[in-house]
Amino acid sequence: MPRWWAVAAYRQATTERLISIGRHSTGVMYQGHVIHDLDPLTEEFIPETILHRASQRELIESTLDPLLKGYKPRPLLLFGPAGTGKTSLATEIAEDLSDESGNVRTAYVNCWVDYSKFRVLYSIVQQIASPLLIHRKGTPTDELVERLERVLGASRCLVILDEVDQLKDKDVLYLLARPGVGLLFIADTEGALLDTSMRTRSRLGSLQMVDFKAYSVEELAAILDARAKHALYPGAVSAEHLHLIASSARGDARRAIETLRFAAADAERADRSCILDADIKEAIPQAKKASSDRGISKLNMHQRLLYAIIQEGKSIGSAELYHQYYEQVHDPVRVRTLRDYLQKMTFYGFVRARGTGRWRTYSIAE
């Protein structure tokens, strides 16, 4: 087994273990002195109200309103850093829209996982049509397109494409941009669709941009307070400690909530009735690592190989990095695509880049 596959497998297993801990704990009621119900401190938990996102909600709902009347709404692009509520708010609004109108179907696609034209179309058709009609193996793309067009012609649909910048073939958006379909894209940057073809951009029309800025410390503290009231016993965590956790999370609500969960678990194991400074000090790096592992697990095969080569070389020049990549891959991507991958990995904080052009070097971000 090549080393890069071993590294990737280890990272994937680590992340799956962390996620499984939260999932298996969902709904568990504790007999300890700190945690009452772990569910509100897990990633899967969706609160009744997503705090500090009222203006974004209003803009999204007003933009999608024509869909309820049978018209094509403007496509939306929700952009902002990780942990700012983009996906949670989008899926909540989609559920409300579906409940409000029985003739609006919804489909959610994570483009980190389903990044090809076929996989996107397959996922959408499976969600808005009968899943028994098609099979992943042996179904031609043209047949998927025909079935999608038949379904979309009979009902209105909202399609959410999360991590849309990871799409391998963005021309699939051309097929989806049609009457009776609302498109909601989610990405970290507002330039996520700049590399689409002129044909596709013309078909999409002007995007409604919805900015999700990183939460302030005070906003994160309020979010943590709401979660703590549902998850922990009264007095288990102080307002000062919630503020300390919020300050450490760099505007990322997911990371802040994970930090609180780790701190609460440490206090529980120590058989105490409240969280101490030491618990938070231990929890902050744990949550940071969990966030990093989760992000790395979402990298595609080529990105994981680049990450593993950089990790092995400690600090490596771009020319040597490309050379090693092309030596190890039978079906490599183009140099331009490699540059795009490295730019995204740098933006997401997985790797650090220094220098420019042929003198650029890469190292793993600590």
SSE order and pairing:
Blueprint: H1 3-25, H2 54-68, E1 76-79, H3 86-100, E2 104-110, H4 117-128, H5 141-154, E3 156-162, H6 172-176, E4 181-187, H7 198-204, E5 208-211, H8 217-231, H9 239-248, H10 253-269, H11 277-297, H12 301-313, E6 315-317, H13 318-328, H14 335-347, E7 351-354, E8 361-364
Parallel strand pairs: 1-4, 1-5, 2-3, 3-4
Antiparallel strand pairs: 6-8, 7-8
Keywords:
Arc Repressor Mutant, subunit A; 52% helix; Rossmann fold; 3 domains; 14 helices; 5-stranded parallel beta sheet; disordered N terminus
Briefly summarize what is shown.
This protein has 14 helices and eight strands. It has 366 residues and is an alpha/beta fold.
What do you see in this structure?
- The protein is an alpha/beta fold and 366 residues long.
- It folds into 3 domains: 3-48 and 215-296, Helicase, Ruva Protein, domain 3 (Orthogonal Bundle), CATH 1.10.8.60; 54-211, P-loop containing nucleotide triphosphate hydrolases (Rossmann fold, 3-Layer(aba) Sandwich); 299-364, Winged helix-like DNA-binding domain superfamily/Winged helix DNA-binding domain (Arc Repressor Mutant, subunit A).
- 52% of the residues lie in helices and 11% in strands.
- It contains 14 helices and 8 strands.
- The strands form 2 sheets. It has a 5-stranded parallel sheet with strand order 2-3-4-1-5, with helices on both faces. A 3-stranded antiparallel sheet has the order 6-8-7.
- Helix 1 (3-25) crosses helix 11.
- The chain starts with a helix and ends with a strand.
